[in-house]
C-alpha cells in the first residue's frame, strides 16, 4: 500500500473501509440483497469483463439479479492489493473465486448442458470516496479459469 502524505492512521482506516466494502459486495450478491449490492457502487460506475459489462450500473445490477435467479452462488476475494491515488481515490486488485450452481434448468447459455461453474481470476477496481463512504467506481473482472460442471 502506498499512501499520500497525511495521517497514517486515517489511511489504515480507509484501507479497512475498502476491505469492508468488498466484503459487502460478496455478501450482498450471494444473499441476493440487490439494493445493498447496488449501494457498493458509485452512480457512474463502469463494469468490464463480465457477462453484463457496461456503464449503466442499474442495468448491471438488474442483469446480475436475472442471471443469479435460481442459482446458489459463492463469491470470494483474497489477497487485496490496495494503492491510494489521493485522499479520495484508490485502486485495488483482488484474487477471486466464484461458484455458481443453477438448481433447475441448467446454467447460462454459454455453458450448454452444464448446471454451473467454478471460476478463478482477478478483480481490478477503482474506489472513490462519495459523501464520506468508499464505493466501487470501476470494476474489471479478468478470468483466468472457468470449470463448468
Features:
3 helices; about 150 residues; about 45% strand; Nuclear Transport Factor 2, Chain: A; alpha+beta
CATH topology: Nuclear Transport Factor 2, Chain: A
Main-sheet strand order equals 1-5-4-3-2
**N-end to C-end Cα span:** 38 Å
Give the SSE string: HHEHEEEE
The biggest beta sheet reads:
5 strands, mixed
Rg to the nearest angstrom?
16 Å
Specify the CATH architecture: Roll
Assembly type? single chain
Tell me about this structure.
The chain is α+β, with helices and mostly antiparallel strands and 149 residues long. It has a single domain, classed as Nuclear Transport Factor 2, Chain: A (Roll). It has 3 helices and 5 strands. It has helices at 8-30, 34-39, 57-68, and strands at 41-48, 71-86, 89-102, 116-130, 133-148. It has a 5-stranded mixed sheet. The longest helix has 23 residues, at 8-30. The N and C termini lie far apart (38 Å).
List the helices and strands and how they pair.
Blueprint lengths: L7 H23 L3 H6 L1 E8 L8 H12 L2 E16 L2 E14 L13 E15 L2 E16 L1
Parallel strand pairs: 1-5
Antiparallel strand pairs: 2-3, 3-4, 4-5
Put the structure in a nutshell.
This protein has helices spanning 8-30, 34-39, 57-68, and strands spanning 41-48, 71-86, 89-102, 116-130, 133-148. The N and C termini lie far apart (38 Å). The chain has a five-stranded mixed β-sheet.
